[in-house]
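Issue 218. Parser rejects a valid record. Input:
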Amino acid sequence: MVADTVDAPRGLGLAIGYPGGAQWRTAMLNLPVFQDNSVQGFYDRLLASRPVPDTGKPDPTAMAGFLAAHPETVNAMTAIKRQPLTSGFADSTFRGLNTFYFVNANGDRTPVRWSLSPMREVRPPDETSSNPNRLFDSVVRDIRTEPLRWRLLVTIGEPEDDVRDATIAWPADRHTIDTGTVVLDSIETESAGNARDVNFDPMVLPDGIEPSEDPLLPARSAVYATSFRRRAGVAGEAPQVEVGEVAQ
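Output the parser choked on:
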């Protein structure tokens, strides 16, 4: 577990059920792009950022070497740093950073990326709070006050857009479709049977949605499965945030 900081990445997962038992599962981040465009790059970045015993921090030489070999990560990190910080989950934009295809009855495939755009006013973060659970405590209080809403937006890719590279944002002028509103109106403490036990595998898709050639998608599927198995084997751990204990 890590403390909530103003610049910590935030995630939002959705599991949408369809008649007949089919599901669409998507895990999104509040980042404009992902830091890596290959499985090897992701692995190498983790190794380069591993703390060394002497300092408890990453070896700057190792990280410098990694970045020199991965200009795509340098560009992605620059884009991430340029994104303004927001106050919490409620006013964050969440993006599915990989590309998928929407497929019609004729088999025509359209590349898409989706995102959740907050309907709440965007505010700057509270830089003064030292509460290690600030983000989760805040979202608990927010939902108690009123439901949280995001517009579910689908962006349509053009033939020149790279469907394999999650480090590259598509141009802002791409056609976007507002497909509806996602509403969160209740919140529960993490426990067996709720989100703790859902594997937000990006390859769990209903008919009409297919994965792109992005190499990160099958890797995410494998990693998420491992994470799920490890969570399922943990018993007796107290949740980090108890909803009922968060003050108004």
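Fixed in the parser; the record now loads. The first strand starts at residue 11 and ends at 17.
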